[in-house]
Amino acid sequence: MQVCYDAEAAYYSYGPRGGPAELALSESYDTLGYTPWPGVGRAIWEAITFTNGDYTYTVSGGVDRMFGDEAEADNPHPQFGSVTVRKGDDILAELTCDRATVAFSWSDNLYDYKEAAGFEWDYRDRGWKTRR
After folding, report:
1. What are 32-61's pLDDT values in tens digits?
2. In terms of Cα–Cα distance, which of 45, 61, 54 is closest to 12?
């Protein structure tokens, strides 16, 4: 599984490592479901939802932060990821990535791209609204 993005869209692909993608989707920022990290808690995380007909694929990723006397040996694989596949409201699959295989690099680029598409994040309602 891989998620990447540029200034125009976000891209999701799913398939065997080193093999061809079994599913490849792209989503523009005006329709992309994106939940940004709220800025609190031990983990920095975000979630992105791609739509394909009646199906949605919610991909989340993050990294556990270390505090105090913690060392890398205490948490050798701090990055995590998952994908949830739904048809309507029904969950069809919930897959958790092997932490040793996750490469998560958080930035605020997706947030900036959603804003550039004319949206603003409402922290109270935890959702994107069209900028007035």
Report:
1. 999 999 988 889 999 999 999 999 999 999
2. 61
